[in-house]
Amino acid sequence: MKNLVALTALFLATTALTAAADPVTLRLGHAVFEAHPNHDTAVRFKEAVERLSDGEVKVDIYPARQLGDVKELMEGVQLGTVDMTVNSSSALATLEPSVDAFQLPGVIPSYEGFAALAVSAPARAIMDTLEKHDMVSLGLYDGGQRHFLTIGEPVSAMDGFKGLKTRVAPVKLFLDVWAAVGTNPTPMAYGEVYSALETGTLDAVEINLTSIESEKFYEVAKGVTLTGHYFWPSLLLINKGVFDGLTPEQQQAMRDAAKEITEPQVMAVKALDEKVVVHLQELKIPVVIPDASFAAAFREAVKPVVDSYRAADPLVEAFVAEAEKLPATN
């Protein structure tokens, strides 16, 4: 009888603690405008986690650099001054070189392939390396395939890249890729790109179509070449201390929400890209679709870079090997 009473008391105490778990409200910042896929990711996650947690986890979204630019947001999540962010994977490569796997040119074959790879074991192994930097990566999403935008005529052959002062994010991989292509790669903060194109400080930028649209880069740069050289992945990150402070049920709701939205988010970007191309054509912006020889020459130019990064890290090798199992269609 005493054992029964003790067990009942323990059950009631545990139930009371569970019921008393306080709802949490998390601040999620990102660096882009609301038309960008990263905002769509944030909104999808907010809606999913609030539903799956029965309102125990709420998310307030701060778009358009309200809490800082890309680098500041990443550092904020590390320090815990920002709870969460949807941030480009390129901002994390300086911390964990294996993150470069997500942006090796030509490795991810299609949007469908991206959605499959985002929830694969090799991708998760790479994301888990961020925990030692005080961040938990809940999921991998997409901001769109990257293309080439010029202030002059669009590039229609490999020799057209030669010497163009081209903005890249300040990451070694991008410097290597665009030097191999033949441009003059120029690191620059994302928030400075519009004015640099407008003043002619830059000749070009490698960029996703949704950013051309959301940031209105088409106002200051007039040529688009649909190289589709790599995707622009983003990671949904939360400060590790904040995540560890949640109840197991709240943590699981966050992980389930992050996984649930992956495929819908990626495929929504594909549909959005198709709409942006139509809009650019309506604006009379010249759009070049590389022919087979141009595309092959681009792949050949960047192959040494891919081979080098693949050989340097077993996590990168595992991710590329997983990608090679996918159909090569786009």
Report on the structure:
The chain is an alpha/beta fold. It has one domain (2-323): Bacterial extracellular solute-binding protein, family 7 (D-Maltodextrin-Binding Protein, domain 2). Helices cover 46% and strands 18% of the residues. It has helices at residues 2-19, 37-52, 70-79, 111-118, 121-128, 172-181, 193-199, 209-214, 240-244, 248-260, 262-282, 292-312, 314-323; strands spanning 24-29, 57-62, 84-88, 135-150, 165-168, 184-187, 204-208, 223-225, 231-239, 287-288. Strands 1, 2, 3, 4, 5, 6, 7, 8, 9 and 10 form a 10-stranded mixed sheet that branches. Helix 4 (111-118) runs antiparallel to helix 11, helix 5 (121-128) runs antiparallel to helix 13 (314-323) and helix 6 (172-181) runs antiparallel to helix 12 (292-312). The protein is globular. Mean pLDDT is 93; it is low at 1-20.
